[in-house]
Design goal:
The protein is mostly beta strands. The strands form 8 sheets. Strands 1-6-5-4-3 form a 5-stranded antiparallel β-sheet, with no helix packed on it. A hairpin with a 2-residue loop joins strand 23 and strand 24. The longest helix is centred in the N-terminal third of the chain and has 6 residues. The chain is globular and about 55 Å long.
Length: 423
């Protein structure tokens, strides 16, 4: 079942620093490579440290970064030319690259579990090994994909533009595909949990299905289209609708746990960090609400995009592209960084690390100076560990004197010398 159009690069490709200085046109207007790299002195003035900077395998004159997925300790970068680039999230080191399908066919955002990476190119589903990037299998789906796939423990599910969601077994390819017919077109990837496959449609319906049969347990109707990816905080599904509400319901019973009114349509994924959920309506402004009760804790105006969170701070982007720093308890704005030239700002729901980049393949990682080890939000809390919303107020980190900061040696994966400080 392996296709000839899927090629794998067994040897990791090392990005070339001189490529940033080439004469190829940059998608970021008026921004030099150095203007897009946050220098160590500027980062430290904001209580941060740049861990690494690198560039993915990409010809800026032909393609650009399409999506960045953060999962566990890895980044998966998809380009518009069908290249998947896997990176170590802590070092920036390339793990593998794989070209999927035809370069002139559209690819959907990838999905992962502990063993596999899945995405569609054209009307073909490709499943790769997460460990090596080698192809596992590919199959032609029964129509045009309307969104990216979802990968559960045993099944990979693909939503189609005809309202059908198809499921393929990951280990037993001889098993027949499963089909679930929804009312309306699924415009977002399904959500795969240990017990369910949850599908949502443009018509406002949400379905919870049994993974082994794709039969619906129940369905919930909202009064607006579901265009924001859903989130999971066991055993509850968090779904945002264009009717202005965020819904929490039990994944197998369908019980309505709470509803939160954001006042206007929500088209971004609700972000779950510990006991907090972050919601951004279309007209901007960041809400922090309680995951248990669905009640507002604070609202920060002018915020357009969630980036990451530490135990004491929330990092987000405003409409001008600047990175703003908010107090995690109150939402009060503490600081901001000039990152307008960086158009790639993936939301990190897994750790505290901040990832920034540009569409021509430049990527860099920042962390708070004190947090040498990543704070993991995808792991169950340890006994006695306070939830994020109740973290002690440690106050802003003390910035060392400028003349006391030595030039830090590049971290593994940091392929550029420190640029001039434009900050």
């Amino acid at each position: 079942m392996q296709s000839n159009v899927l090629r794998h690069y067994a040897v990791p490709l090392v990005p070339i620093a001189l490529a940033l200085l080439s004469s190829a046109p940059l998608p970021v207007s008026g921004a030099s490579p150095y203007e897009r790299i946050i220098s160590q002195p500027m980062a430290r003035r904001h209580g941060l440290e740049r861990m690494w900077v690198t560039r993915v395998e990409l010809d800026p004159s032909r393609g650009r970064v399409a999506d960045v997925l953060i999962d566990g300790g890895e980044l998966f970068v998809l380009t518009t030319r069908g290249l998947v680039h896997a990176l170590n999230a802590e070092s920036g080191r390339t793990l593998w690259t794989a070209r999927v399908g035809r370069r002139d066919f559209p690819s959907t955002s990838p999905a992962v579990n502990k063993d596999y990476v899945a995405l569609t190119n054209g009307s073909t589903l490709y499943v790769l090994s997460r460990r090596s990037g080698l192809p596992v299998f590919d199959v032609s789906v029964g129509g045009s994909p309307s969104a990216g796939p979802a990968v559960g423990e045993n099944w990979v599910c693909v939503p189609l533009s005809n309202g059908i969601v198809e499921a393929y077994h990951l280990a037993d390819r001889d098993r027949d595909r499963l089909i679930h017919a929804a009312a309306g077109i699924p415009e977002i990837a399904p959500l795969a949990t240990p017990q369910s496959v949850v599908c949502a449609t443009k018509s406002g319906w949400i379905y919870s299905c049994v993974p082994e049969t794709m039969a619906a347990r129940f369905r919930i109707e909202t009064t607006g289209a579901i265009t924001a990816p859903m989130s999971y905080v066991a055993p509850h599904i968090i779904a945002a609708s264009r009717d202005g509400y965020v819904y929490a319901f039990h994944e197998t019973e369908g019980d309505d746990i709470w509803r939160f009114s954001a006042g206007e349509a929500v088209s971004r994924r609700p972000v779950v960090i510990g006991d907090a959920i972050y919601v951004i309506p279309e007209l901007g402004g960041l809400y922090q609400i309680s995951a248990a009760l669905g009640v507002e804790r604070w609202h920060a105006a002018g915020v357009d995009h969630f980036l990451a969170a530490s135990p004491t701070k929330v990092y987000a982007a405003d409409r001008l592209g600047r990175t703003v720093v908010l107090d995690v308890k109150t939402g009060v704005r503490l600081d901001w960084l000039p990152t307008e030239a960086l158009s790639v700002k993936p939301a990190n729901t897994v750790t505290d690390r901040i990832y920034l980049g540009s569409s021509d393949g430049l990527l860099q990682c920042l962390r708070e100076i004190e947090l040498r080890e990543p704070v993991r939000y995808d792991l169950p809390p340890q006994d006695g560990e306070p939830p994020m919303g109740d973290a002690p107020d440690a106050g802003p980190p003390a910035a060392p004197p400028a003349d006391a900061v030595p030039a830090a040696p590049p971290a593994e994966g940091d392929i550029f010398a420190d640029p001039p400080d434009f900050g």
